[in-house]
Amino acid sequence: MVIESRASATSPALVLRRWCADDLDALLAAYRDPVLRRWTRVPATTAAEGRQWLDRVRDDWDDGSRYSFAVLEDGADGPRLVANVVLKGAAPDRPAAEVGYWTASWARGRGIAPRAVTMVSRWAFDRFEALERLDLLHQVDNVASCRVAQKSGYLFQEVLPARPPFPLDGHRHTLTAP
């Protein structure tokens, strides 16, 4: 499964594809960032953890529970991992699912997260006919995620009470089917 965007005058093309074993080094490089580790529940900081992470996202895709995409951007040295975007809880008969993402430190602030979230959101609505709504959740102090939600067309809906493993309340943003 591959989803591609076109390059524009201001943005290189993005490619969303399934994660593979060859992504291990790039995954570990992304998780060296303490900011990324702060916002994720299951970081991959060692080769063993990275392999487990990649095995889990492959298994989740195969059983249809989650669809995780490596987000790649063309660079001078070829494609480079810049983000992860995931669709959680989608099923043929479910009206709602959740979108999540992270962006590698070297790719932040360039609009990659909103573009990847928009791409996976369109894919989700096209793939799952019963899907009526996508949620994007984040902790209240994650201001960058609030901006990504807004730039991706997700509207703020409510404040959610804190729930483990997140210590603070959260925001729920939604995008409805076109």
The dominant shape is globular
| Uncertain regions spanning at least 5 consecutive residues | none
Classify the secondary structure makeup into a structural class: alpha+beta
Percent of residues in beta strands: 25-35%
Spatial extent as radius of gyration: 16 Å
Q: Tell me the span between the first and last alpha carbons.
A: 22 Å
* Biggest sheet strand line-up: 1-2-3-4-5-6-8-7
Helix fraction bin: 25-40%
Mean pLDDT, nearest integer?
91
Q: How many β strands by DSSP?
A: 8
Can you count the helices? Answer: 5
Largest sheet: 8 strands, mixed
Order of SSEs: EEHHHEEEHEHEE
How would you sum up this structure, described in words?
The protein has 178 residues and is α+β, with helices and mostly antiparallel strands. Helices cover 31% and strands 32% of the residues. It has five helices and eight strands, in the order E-E-H-H-H-E-E-E-H-E-H-E-E. The protein has helices at residues 24-30, 34-39, 47-63, 112-127, 143-151; strands at residues 2-4, 14-18, 66-75, 78-88, 96-103, 133-139, 155-160, 170-176. An eight-stranded mixed sheet has the order 1-2-3-4-5-6-8-7, sandwiched between helices. Helix 1 (24-30) packs across helix 3. The radius of gyration is 16 Å and the shape is globular. The model has no long low-confidence stretch (mean pLDDT 91).
